[in-house]
Design brief:
The complex is a heterotrimer of chains A (about 130), B (about 300) and C (about 230). Chain A has helices at about 15-25, 40-45, 50-60, 80-105, 110-125; strands at about 65-70, 75. Chain A is mainly α. In chain A, helix 1 crosses helix 3 (about 50-60) and helix 1 crosses helix 4. By secondary structure, chain B is α/β, with parallel strands linked by helices. Chain B has 2 domains: about 5-215, 3-Layer(aba) Sandwich (Rossmann fold); about 220-300, no CATH class. Chain B contains 12 helices and 13 strands. In chain B, about 45% of the residues are buried. Chain C has one domain (about 1-225). By secondary structure, chain C is mainly alpha-helical. Classes of the chains: A mainly alpha (about 130), B alpha/beta (about 300), C mainly alpha (about 230). The interface between A and B is medium-sized, with 32 and 35 residues.
Chain lengths: ~130, ~300, ~230
């Protein structure tokens, strides 16, 4: 397959593009009020059809994460990051915690052991103390 | 919106075969559609009829709302570059010059840039060009014409991978600046996959698939791992294909997988691999994915 | 029709076929004839040659190539079959008119120089191109147009019915000619034929050939319509 900057066949391309832009917003790479790359720029970067890139942008606009400024382009909407993080927090439990607990239980790791494992991991990452 | 290309019950019969059988489709303006299928499936015949080069036996075809055959108004806005394009016996520069005569949107700038990028020898006679160079010439003309309806029939014969990449990139870039309706037939599906908004698959003269490319992505996933786990995971789902060796099994499951599914698969130690567009299309066109050797392995271990 | 003009320009993209080859061949032909006549020892009187036919033969080929080679690419570039044919026919007529005039001028020069100082009748063909200059021009025009139109038919047949069709087309013409000759020989009426030709004025002949040319061009226009590439 062509080098599409890591896009894969797992999900519609426009969804993947939307997710990557969302990641950037969540990570702070794109701040509120900042202009996002144009449809054509995205298409050229990912080597895909501009209509696909446009769909990705449209998806984020619908979710209220991007806004259009007529004649200029697309910009990160106010409060986008906050909204994104809240949304991802909600999914965090589904995506990561539940499978973690299920696997732990399969391996016979009880809740306490699990919590201490989590602590070790967060020290290792130099992250927040729990 | 009037479709850019529309066919209804389009049929083309030759003495001993049915090249097109009741083909019906609508392609919207301003889109890139991939026309896929095996050799001899009917891709070229379909495009020839759309371009007015060949006549239908039955059914209708319209381009920009009107029948294309001998219709100057429509033909003016369409260009058809085919793999076996026959050129007059003159130099490359004259072919480019001739094309610039007939297309109102012709871009000398783009033609010049492409000629340079493809290293086309302007003063060489076309019949002395290598296959790849002939294809490059077709591509230069096809893109620089900026025709409202642009048809490419396997335009990359003989082009090396670098030149093909160039073609895809230039097509996308010019399409972004000057949108038009593009129908591109190809066997190299995975290479061109990123270009298509829509995919039409034709097999033995019939349309077997006509979907948005994005709907095809993630339309099927290959699940592999311990046979028992695979059986558990695929229980109750539509399974397209199953292969087995010793205690390992690989199955292709239709339908998209969501987060929960992925989590469950991970928990079961199963590997998930989404099928590429090419694999989905090959399946749709009826060809078996397994190689003869794999088929043998399946038979002996079952 | 602007498309017809564009087709004519397209046909002239490679100048060789329509513009250069007829004159190149004719010049060579002329020089060869001049060379032979100039070096022919002890000849007397006027020398008549039928070498002017060379240009007609070249135009036959030109007509065939104008269709056979140029049509498929023209169709790819969005030209309708009818426009392509009409534009090409228009060019053929224009070329025939201009070349006819040139031949007539050369005729006048030939007369003025006493046959190029060699009593050579190259451009002055008895009976056919022997009359007043305007008649000469008309006959040349029709003759050249006929050569092109007939040549174009070979191109059309080839494109529509392939190599087999082309060979059949040639065979049929050869057979027809043979048949006509056999009929005349059979009826032993060579005198009748000769009489016909002597009573047929050059104006009449020109008219006949003109009618034939129109028929060929018209027939060609109708035949290209179902041609496929």
């Amino acid at each position: 397959m062509r080098d599409m900057a890591g896009l894969d066949e797992g999900a519609p391309l426009f969804v993947q593009i939307a997710e990557r832009l969302a990641d950037e917003i969540a990570d702070g790479g794109l701040v509120e009020g900042e202009q996002v790359p144009s449809t054509n720029e995205l298409a050229a970067y990912y080597r895909i059809n501009p209509a696909t890139a446009a769909k990705g942008i449209a998806m984020l606009t619908e979710d209220g994460l991007l806004e259009k400024r007529r004649g200029i382009g697309m910009f990160v909407a106010a409060g986008a990051r906050t909204r994104l993080l809240a949304e991802r927090r909600k999914r965090f439990a589904e995506r990561y915690v539940e499978p973690l607990v299920a696997e732990a239980s399969r391996l016979g790791i009880d809740a306490n052991e699990l919590v201490s494992l989590i602590r070790d991991a967060s020290y290792g990452q130099g992250g927040t103390t729990i | 919106m009037t479709p850019a290309i529309s066919a209804a019950g389009l049929t083309r019969r030759y003495r001993d075969q049915l090249a097109l059988d009741q083909v019906t489709l609508d392609l919207q303006p301003g889109s890139i559609t991939g026309l896929l299928g095996r050799n001899g499936a009917g891709k070229t015949t379909l495009m020839r009829i759309v371009a007015g080069h060949e006549f239908a036996s039955a059914g209708t075809v319209t381009v920009l709302g009107a029948s294309p055959a001998e219709n100057e108004t429509v033909l003016r806005q369409m260009i058809f570059i085919r793999e076996d394009q026959s050129y007059p016996d003159f130099k490359v520069r004259y072919a480019v010059q001739a094309a610039s005569l007939f297309y109102p949107n012709w871009s000398h700038e783009l033609a010049g840039a492409l000629i340079e990028e493809f290293n086309l020898p302007l003063n060489r006679r076309i019949r002395k060009l290598s296959r790849g160079m002939r294809s490059a010439l077709g591509i230069v003309i096809g893109l620089a014409a900026r025709a409202e309806v642009t048809l490419f029939d396997e335009p990359y014969a003989g082009l090396d991978p670098v030149a093909r990449e160039l073609f895809y990139d230039r097509l996308l870039a010019d399409y972004a600046e000057h949108p038009r309706t593009v129908l591109l037939s190809t066997h190299l599906i995975d290479e061109a996959a990123g270009l298509f908004e829509r995919v039409v698959v034709i097999d033995r003269g019939r349309i077997v698939l006509n979907m948005a490319a994005d709907d095809l992505r993630g339309a099927a996933t290959s699940i592999s791992g311990p046979a028992i786990a695979v059986a558990e995971f695929t229980g109750g789902r539509s399974v397209w294909d199953r292969r087995r060796i010793a205690s390992q099994e690989s199955a292709v499951v239709a339908g998209a997988l969501d987060e929960t599914d992925r989590a469950r698969a991970a928990a079961l130690h199963l590997r998930l691999e989404p099928l590429t567009l090419q694999q989905v299309v090959v399946r749709a066109a009826g060809a078996s994915m397994a190689s003869p050797a794999e088929k043998n392995a399946e038979r002996t271990s079952a | 029709m602007s498309t017809w003009i564009k087709v004519a320009r397209y046909q002239l993209t490679d100048r060789y076929v329509f513009l250069i080859s007829p004159w190149l061949i004719l010049t060579l032909d002329f020089l060869i004839n001049v060379g032979i006549v100039a070096n022919y020892p002890g000849r007397q009187g006027q020398v008549y040659v039928g070498a002017l036919s060379a240009i007609y033969i070249v135009l036959l080929t030109t007509g065939a190539l104008a269709i056979a080679r140029q049509l498929p690419f023209a169709l790819a570039l969005g030209v309708s079959r009818r426009s392509f044919y009409a534009g090409t026919a228009l060019l053929a007529l224009a070329v025939a008119a201009v070349y006819g005039l040139v031949l007539t001028l050369l005729q006048l020069i030939e007369r003025g120089t006493g046959g190029w100082g060699l009593k050579l009748h190259f451009f002055r063909v008895p009976y056919l191109l022997a009359g007043p200059w305007y008649l000469s021009w008309l006959t040349s025009f029709v003759g050249l147009a006929l050569a092109l139109a007939w040549g174009m038919w070979f191109g059309i047949v080839h494109r529509r019915w392939g190599l087999v069709g082309l060979l059949s087309f040639i065979a049929v013409q050869a057979l027809a000619l043979t048949a006509v000759l056999l009929i005349i020989a059979g009826a032993d009426d060579w005198h009748g034929v000769a009489r016909f030709f002597t009573t047929l004025t050059i104006e009449g002949l020109t008219g006949l050939l003109a009618a034939l040319t129109v028929a060929l061009l018209g027939g060609g226009y109708a035949t290209v319509r179902r041609l496929t590439v």
